[in-house]
Amino acid sequence: MTKVPIIEENEASGPVAEAYEYWRTASGHAEIPGLWKALSARPDFLQQAVDFSGLMLFSDGHLSLRYKEMIGAFASHLDGCENSSGSRGYASLPPAPAGDAVTLGALLRGEVEEAGLTAAERALMAYVAQVSKAAYRTTPAHVQKLRDAGWTEEQIAETVYLVALFAMFHRIANAFGVPVQSDMVEGRATT
Amino acid sequence: VSGESEVPVRMPDYIVEVSAAGQKIKLIEDADATGETAKVYDEWRAHSGRTQMPGILKCFSHRPDFLRYVMQFSNAVHFSDGHLTRRYKEMIASYVSFLNRCPY
After folding, report:
1. How would you label A9-30 residue by residue, b for 16+ Cβ within 10 Å and e otherwise?
2. What is the pTM of this model?
3. What pLDDT, in 10s, does the model give residues A120-144?
4. Residue B86 pairs with which residues in a beta bridge?
5. ipTM of the predicted assembly exceeds 0.90
6. Residue A17: how many CA atoms within 13 Å on its side-chain side?
7. Which residues, numbered 40 to 99 in chain B, qualify as contacts with chain A under a Cβ-Cβ cut-off of 8 Å?
8. What gap in Å lies between CA A8 and CA A81, rounded to an integer?
9. Which of A3, A30, A59, A99 lies deepest, with the highest CB count within 10 Å?
10. Which of A142, A128, A173, A157 is CA-nearest to residue A56?
């Protein structure tokens, strides 16, 4: 039972049923995660979210998928959202290498020092934390640190887009109270 | 609204702080846009009837494919009536701007 009502799959009809089918086709999965059902009040937005999530969260861009998952895992911790680790793993992607599973698990717990990160990756995670908690307090010096660590302008920009997108999904998940669907919690880490 | 008197708006202190920091990540300005970025900027200008891209949209200039989606879902969810009217959406947006300390 969620805090805000959602439309379950067996109750869906009309545009909601169409949007759910759109998600199934895009993901290759049969069962809709709770996070996506939380968008059922606006099935038009649900379909748009499927499209831009596929583009931004579930494929390589200026940042590789590996870095996107690292940002997502750490943002989950920063946003106090337990739901997202599993829901991010929906996109029929290959299993993460064992080392990545350790890294992502540590970031989900907020244990940056235990995540086996390089100096550049630690700098990126520090920036993720700053943007997540107080983006208005970021400074040109924060951005310069990332450039000095080797991150390009496009990668820095994409990091900001990702933190913002994850914040949206995390707030939706937490406000609706959708059940945790975490492969990681079950010990089946996927990216 | 036409006919209403102008009421001075006291701007929050954080706006001074945020503005003082200046631009942090480089954006692609209107005059510098090429390729897909220029194409999406043109689409926005044609849709809005305005000539200058707003700064908030230029923040997405490093991913013009995503910018196109941002424009689409903003129009669908924010800039039109839905289950909530535009008036309530603007009220929510104004207060969230304050909560996030965002002058935008």
Report:
1. eeebeeebeebbeebbebbeee
2. 0.88
3. 999 999 999 999 999 999 999 999 9
4. none
5. no
6. 5
7. 59-63, 65-66, 69-70, 72-73, 76-77, 82-83
8. 22
9. A59
10. A157
